[in-house]
Each structure stands twice: as structure tokens, then as C-alpha cells.
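Summary for the funding panel

The consortium committed to producing paired sequence-structure records for every protein in the target list. Below we show the first two records in order, beginning with the earlier of the two.
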Amino acid sequence: EEEEEKEGEKEEEINREKEKEVSSLIYKARDLIVKAASLTKNRQEQTNLLDLVHIFREYTEQGTVLSTLSVPKQLHTLTQ
């Protein structure tokens, strides 16, 4: 019983570490998009990238994305 408790605690710790890593990667991705937006001279591309930053901010601050309807359009525009 004590071993099961220790294993459960160990698993919880691993899950917390994974969540921290996920969060860190999301913030890094957002930072890279901000950097790309600041480097581009194309105003439409910059607008699209800043829209993506808005989506990242919405997700990191609220834990949800309400702007998902515009995501496919933005991604399509970015890959043009």
C-alpha cells in the first residue's frame, strides 16, 4: 500500500513536470511568432502572425481558444 502511494506521488510529479514543459513550449512558440511578426516587412503576413499571437495569448491567459473559427483561414494565408 505504501509503495502504491509512492508510485502515485511519483506519477503526479512526472505529470506536473510534463505540464510545465508543455506550458514552456507554448510560450516559446508564441515568442517565436512575435519575433517573426517583427521581422517581416509584409504587412498582411505581420497581421496574420499577430492574429496568431492573439490566439496564443487567449489560450495561455484563459485556457481556451475562442478565436478558432479564424485559425484555418490564418494558416492558409500564412502558407500562401
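The next record, for a separate protein in the list, is shown here:
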Amino acid sequence: MKFLAHIGEPVEEHPVQSPVQNQTTDVGFYFFGGIVILAASGFLVWKILKKRNGRKNISEN
């Protein structure tokens, strides 16, 4: 949370706005990051299962 303060506007100039802005950016960041991680892991699992199923079918046939 602290690293967002010096990336954006100085905290001293906007004591009321900056905490709210940091909270919303944190929530958006974690929400978006969670979606990306879920999508990537789901895609990888699907690819691995597809490869395993393909190998099984080839070996059985």
C-alpha cells in the first residue's frame, strides 16, 4: 500500500483524497490480478489435461 503513495501524487498535499484513491486502486489491482491468475491457471490446467487425454487416446489406439 505504501509504494502506491510515491508513484501517484504526494500524500501531504491531498490528505483526504489519497487514502481513498489508494484503496480503490488496491481493490482494483487485486481484483484484476485475481481474475488474470485464475484465467491463466485454468488455461494451463486445460492445456495439460488436453495433452494428457491426447496421449492416452493415442496410446490406446
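Regarding this second record: The chain is about 80% helix and 0% strand. Residues 17-60 form the longest helix (44 residues).
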